[in-house]
Each structure stands twice: as structure tokens, then as C-alpha cells.
Design goal:
Number of helices: 8
Distance between the termini: 21 Å
Number of domains: 2
CATH architecture of the largest domain: 3-Layer(aba) Sandwich
CATH topology of the largest domain: Rossmann fold
Radius of gyration: 20 Å
CATH superfamily of the largest domain: Response regulator
Largest sheet: 5 strands, parallel
Oligomer: single chain
Strand content: 15-25%
Number of strands: 14
Helix content: 25-40%
Strand order of the largest sheet: 3-2-4-5-6
Amino acid sequence: MTVAGSPTLAGATTVVVLVDPTADGDEQLAAGLREHGVTLRTYADPLLAIARLGRDTADVVVIAARLGAEVSAQVAEIVREEFSLPVILAYDDVDVDVIGPAVLAGARPLVHLPYDPTALVGVLQQVRPARPAPAVVRVGDLVLDPAGYDAQLAGRGVDLTMLEFEVLLELASRQDHVVARTDLVRRWPTSADPDEKLIGIVARLRRKFDALGRAGAIHTVRGIGYRLESPAFRPGLA
């Protein structure tokens, strides 16, 4: 195993949309979920959440009963009918009498407030749609296995953090083509400075490949993004 802090949920990163008027910007919850390979997008406005679902990909939607009986039921119905996504209902003891409409609309009352990252991951394991194992990506003698967040170079493990692996996977999947910076920073939408974070990740990847005799592996295309150079991974270079 070659990644520090491997995710609990196997396979590609799980994207969860949380619709809760009081949880907007909950960095502690988002950080806790990231440790398990879960990306959280939080919305206080249910209309905005639905609009974004039509544009961005998601795996599961969590709605809070504190939205109110009518609104939570409407959101659950729209998500189920329009996007065919599983809907989880988050509620507190005081909400028990008002969750009926949302449950009837297809929301599953599986999350008891307050939010706990570990408990929420356990629920996600129950409801996340089964997805085929992601394909292994190969660039010369670099092999990336998304299912296990495993990176191998010439048969030897490469120590990468989760975000380093994900950025490298994105670049490797489009080897010798420029990957736009905007496509890469989507992996951490809640970061205060996503550009600076990406620069740091790329710098660390370069240092690691330089140390392995693969200098020039990642090329900067100024003003656009980055490109993984496949010639740097020709077998026998190290």
C-alpha cells in the first residue's frame, strides 16, 4: 500500500451533497469526511443545491429535516425523480414528528444529528450505488490503481498522499495532454486557496519523481494547467 491515509470507501472518491440551512461551511465535517475519501458539498439553499446537481456529479444527497417537512419532502422527491440519487435524511429527536413526508418521498432516515464523519461514512457504505472498479491507468512503467489508491513505478511503490494520487491520476488519465487547473482544483472545492494548494501538490509530485530519476515528469502550461509527460516514464530510465 502506497498512500498515507487511505480512504474507507473503496474506489473513486464519493461526492456527497448536504442540504442543511445550518451546516454551510462546516469545515470540521468536510475535513473528517475527506479522510475517508469523501468530498462534501454543503448548501444552505435547497434550490441552489438542486441547480448544482444538474451541473455537477454527485453520488448521495443528504437533506436535513430542519429544512421543514414540506421543503425536505420536495427536495427528496426532486432528487429521486430527476437525478435518481439515493437520499439520506438527517434528523434530531425534535424532528421525529415532521420527517414523515420526506420519508414517504424516498428519503431514508439514517443519520442522527449532530453529524459525525465516521457514522456518516458507515451510512454511505450502505446506500452508495455500486460502481464498477475504476480501471488501472498505465503510463510507461508508472501504474496507478484507483481502487486501492496504489501507485507503482517500475514495480516499486511510490509514497503519495491521497490528493497527490488524485492529481497524478487525473494527469495520467490524459497523459501528454494539458489538464486545466480548474479541472484539478475541483477535488477540494472548500479550500480557502485552491490554486495555492494545487501548486503545492504538483511541487511535491515533482520532487518525488525527480528523486526517482524521472525529472521533467510534469510540465506547466502557463495560464492553463499541467501535462504529464509520458517519455519520463519509459521503462528502463531509472
